[in-house]
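Internal ticket - ligand job 378, iron/sulfur cluster:
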Amino acid sequence: MNEKKNSIVINGHSLNFTQGETILQVAQRNNIKIPTLCYLKGTAPTGSCRMCVVEIEGARSLMTACTVPASSGMVVKTDSEKVIQSRRVTIQLLLASGNHNCAIRNSDNADWTDFQLNVHDYDGNDNLCPVWGDCRLQDLAYEYQVAGDRFPRAISSPPVEDVNPFIIRDFSRCILCGRCVQACNEVQVNLAINFGYRGAESKIIAAGDRPLKDSDCVFCGECIQVCPVGALVEKNSRYKVRDWETEKVKSTCAYCGVGCQIYLHAKDNKIVKVTGAEETGPNYGSLCVKGRFGFDFINSEKRLTNPLIKENGNFKEVSWDKALQYAADNLNKIKNENGSNSIGVLTSARITNEENYIAQKFSRAVLKTNNIDHCARL
Ligand code: SF4
Ligand code: SF4
Ligand code: SF4
Ligand code: FES
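stdout (structure tokens):
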């Protein structure tokens, strides 16, 4: 296979490809921007949104770059007039498909008030969409300079589902891109959701169209992370915080030894949301329910800030020096009276490998016992 054979032309540039690469992959590798909505890296492309259409010389119609493999001699244009027009119509259709009441819906529109009242009736909030400023569709609407008033608006959607502690499903803002289905089925392999019904009735369903809480959903939140619009949003931050108000700090999840990389989203020095860091391993964006949603304890007033010693059945706050001395005295006493093997040490997956190593060293070298174990074995 020579170089010339495996080469295509995109926007006048001759580019090499490897067998099986799609036009989109070749373009991305060469920093040529092709917009996408449904494409989810690492999963089988579905070609459902048609945002990534490109013009291929000799082809009768526009083709989706995320599904078409590159082939030798192909000549592709990613930004021709025909391509731009097609993308504009796609965005306009999606904006008209539901409650897309962000600013890109033409605010001079005579029926704006009626529209906004409908949205208010639907989700009980008179603010603009909860993901205003953090939405792929809104970004594209600005980029392609289109509003949502070209086509008649879809007026009804199944009601908002908010009967679980973690995720709000807003069907009125779902663009049926299918990324959540791929994330749940192909990335997390939880198989909790899929497309249901047909035509205008199409929606993403769980367990025969029951709430997520009554399905196989484990509330990992992968689907929220990949949803490009405001259809899936964290319950505890929806309408309470805007993306631009938060500072994002990269950190490591403290719940277990996997060490998932996360972004802590903080407002006024309080964590309001956690997302997985997509650019880094070991998790590449995926998290479990604890890592994504279990952060309330960080700002809890009930957190211990000082050691406690139980005296006469009641806990008493003491200094670290006193607590350590108390533990040392009692361990020595037990060891002297009953021998080293009367003591056992249990460590935790919530501390680091280094801390676990120190704990076993302490047990064997100081307490002189091999009675050391770890909760991960339970
Ligand atoms: S989901 Fe996106 S496009 Fe729709 S209203 Fe919200 S911000 Fe606008
Ligand atoms: S939270 Fe996780 S398991 Fe539940 S639907 Fe979303 S991706 Fe699937
Ligand atoms: S819920 Fe979000 S990710 Fe799932 S199909 Fe709808 S828009 Fe796409
Ligand atoms: S990104 Fe290619 S069809 Fe949606």
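Auto-summary: The chain has nine helices and 16 strands. The first strand starts at residue 7 and ends at 10.
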